[in-house]
Amino acid sequence: MSTKDFIEKDYYKVLGVPRDATEAEIKKAYRKLARENHPDANKGDAKAEERFKSVSEAYDVLGDAKRRKEYDEARALFGNGGFRPGPGGAGQFNFDFGDLFGGAQPPNGGAGGAGGFGGGIGDVFGGLFNRGGTTGRAAPRRGQDIESEVTLSFTEAVSGATVPLRMSSSAACKTCSGTGDKNGTPRVCPTCVGTGQISRGGGGGFSLTDPCVDCKGRGLIAQDPCPVCRGSGRATSSRTMQVRIPPGVDDGQRIRLRGKGAPGERGGPGGDLYVTVHVDAHPVFGRRGDNLTISVPVSFPEAALGGEIKVPTLGGPPVTLKLPPGTPGGRVMRARGKGAVRKDGTRGDLLVTIEVAVPRDLGDAARKALEEYRMAAEGEDPRAGLFEAAKGE
Predict the structure, then answer these.
(1) Residues 126, 127, 129, 130: is their CA dihedral positive or negative?
(2) Which pLDDT tens digit goes with each residue over 342-378?
(3) Closest CA to 141 of 278, 233, 40
(4) How many domains does the chain have?
């Protein structure tokens, strides 16, 4: 975030709250907007992602009492078309900003005086951005996010699993210990004096802050560049991490593991690891939300006369279900607590679909018995009324 952005952006408008909003109102507005525009809920929507970033940036300022006070004071002095220095003339003010900010000297030997803040503006807003003009150390930098994939068996997805995950990411170069210098003795960048940032003149007399182009924002320059990282201090590093996949994940689900991405720089936090889960199909069981599904064949006598049948469960002992007489094919029965693990530790159910098995080959005795049954049931037409109903009358 640059000084210009801090002054000109209306964070109250971004969150949709009045300027006298309480901390609770600001927090409530942020949570609502963040939930609506979160990238996980708007996959592929670049506009929603940009709104999410703007909302997060606004809350970073307004959600902190100290930064909010500094922001309000800065806006009152410079923002909203208010106090803007110019070259003089009607409606303009022409005076030396060095007097306003205590006679601070301009950075890098540049010109001060009217129309230029010089180095003083960095001291005024240094606390807002954790970077003070041309003095101090370069700010910590957050590590990059990493994308990875893992394939689980059906059982692992239902019950949860810890799997090894090999990842490649940018990390401190081991050869030069992250210094970028072959001998481990880099020098402070003379352009930014070790801050990793430089100031440039902006419109209306503002001094804007950008990453230093000479040291790429590191604040250090290698005297003898490391042959592995070529002076950047960063190299590709491979590592294997044991990742815990929670129970109940679905095929295609994307899991976020905070701080498990690429390491940060200069004490900055690590990035996040995003793992896309793929689940192999099971030859017997299926999945419907928190419930598992299975189709169980039964014989015609079992369906017609009723009885007890044993049904397998995933990773546990079989359960016994009681079939009522006259059970039709396609009926779904429920074995409670034999499904997938939910987030609260409880389990869903096992949904059992009954399929009446029709034998392809019949022995003489079985055929004779069925013929006798057909004669005994003669006059019972299971399709009675079907044709009349098909007419729609």
Answers:
(1) positive
(2) 888 889 999 999 999 988 888 889 889 888 888 887 8
(3) 233
(4) 3
Q: Are residues 95 and 11 in the same domain?
A: yes
Please give the pLDDT value at position 90: 38
**Numbered residues of the known binding site for Zn(2+):** 173, 176, 189, 192, 212, 215, 226, 229
Q: List beta partners, residue 199.
A: 209
User: Which residues are paired to 188 by β-bridges?
Assistant: 220
Cα torsion 299, 302, 303, 308 to 10°: value is: -120
Q: Are residues 39 and 164 in the same domain?
A: no
Do 274 and 333 lie in a common domain? no
Residue 113: strand, helix, or coil: coil
* Half-sphere exposure of residue 145: CA atoms within 13 angstroms, side-chain side: 8
Residue 391 placed within a domain: no
Distance CA 71, CA 210 (A): 20
CATH number of the CATH domain containing 8: 1.10.287.110
In this structure, the answer to whether residues 83 and 50 fall within a common structural domain is yes
DSSP for 12-44 reads HHHHT--TT--HHHHHHHHHHHHHHH-GGGSTT
- Asked whether the CA dihedral 38, 40, 43, 49 is positive or negative, the reply is positive
pTM of the model: 0.48
Q: Which residues are annotated as a binding site?
A: 173, 176, 189, 192, 212, 215, 226, 229
Asked if 150 and 266 sit in the same domain, the reply is yes
Instruction: Give the residue numbers spanning the domain of 264.
Output: 146-186+222-279
